[in-house]
Amino acid sequence: MDLNPHNDRTVASRKHNLSGALDDQLEEIVELGLMRHLREIDSPQGVNVQVEGHECLNYSSNDYLGLANHPALKEAAIKAIEKYGVGSGASRLICGNLRPHVELEETIAAFKGTEAALAFSSGYAAAVGTVSALLGRDDIVVVDKLTHASLIDGARLSGAKLRAFAHNDLQKLETILKWATRLQGEAVHARRILVITESVFSMDGDLAPLKNIAELTHQYGGWLLVDEAHSVGLFGEQRRGLAEAFEMHDDIDIHFGTLGKAIGSAGGYVAGNATLINFLINKARSFIFSTAPLPAVSAAATAGIRLIQSEEGEVRRQRVWSLIDHLKSELLVQGITPPPTQSSIIPIVLGQETRARKIAAELLKKGIYVPAIRYPTVAMGKARLRVSMTANHEVEQIKLLCHMLGETMNEFPEGWTDEDARPA
Ligand SMILES: Cc1ncc(COP(=O)(O)O)c(C=O)c1O
Q: Is the model's pTM score more than 0.85?
């Protein structure tokens, strides 16, 4: 075989095969109504965004407290750029461990009430690095079926035996834990058991029965990791998340979260005891083998956490909750039953993928930006519009959203199909 890269014929035929194979797969994705594509936004995150040149009302952001474009975060980032420049230069363990990273971790630990914390460049990196560092082939990882893909990927990467329990189903969780302890009994070396759940589920907006999950996990000798990505800033007196609201902070072994949602910046973190953090510094490969986050991003995250802890943080939180109430009652006015969720994520489940995509595309034409969430993010046949509320929305805008939703859902009612449906 001629592998000389300068041989034109070899290069051309390899390219041809690559495109041919990928085109076939893309065609399948299109047929299923699952094609995704990027939309360019040319404005800061906020309620009013410029989507591909059109001014739209944005109901798709996880910037729940409206901090992503807040002056305090912008000022912190600008000051960090002035002092530290833009790039971090290397990984944290080489020469990239800058003051803003250390300050961020001190701030996270104080906020979450733990001994220590470790910041990663994304929540995805934190998930993959943490789970694969804690577990190996002999261990067992038990996840709620709706746990975020990043943690599932970390579980797969670890090589541990992976079992999923039906969403929020404590009986199923216990059955798996019983099986896990039987395996543990048979093992020469004690196997580790790690249970993973989100506190507020990212695509359903419902809450995990955290207290019961913690009780069961510890009864069967496991460790508990809770992903508070969608609850920090909105739950608990100190706005630390659902574990605080449920008064069970100390029952969680590994506090996990992101810095890119209510906190308003970007990145992920793990908070817990000093041994856990020390272990991850030495073992989490996505931490060790990756350039440190930009100092400006970490400085903005620190400013975001401080703002959440301030009086303004509480005012913003209260506002989100009152807007959630408005949204639910306006949906009812339009004949749409709101989901019985208690969070800033309000999914309108439509079922069929092509219908969800069509309704989202029509809404976008009308100046309303709500994403259609489809497989593989949610199960097949459970496509939905994921509406999220932020502190910066106005009551009038919520009325408009619900009116447009009602109108467009009537135009494309249940059972609607579009044989020619192709990505907009
Ligand atoms: C529940 C949950 N966990 C983890 C992540 C990953 O975080 P990041 O976006 O910072 O990579 C996300 C974000 O999409 C999430 O929703």
A: yes
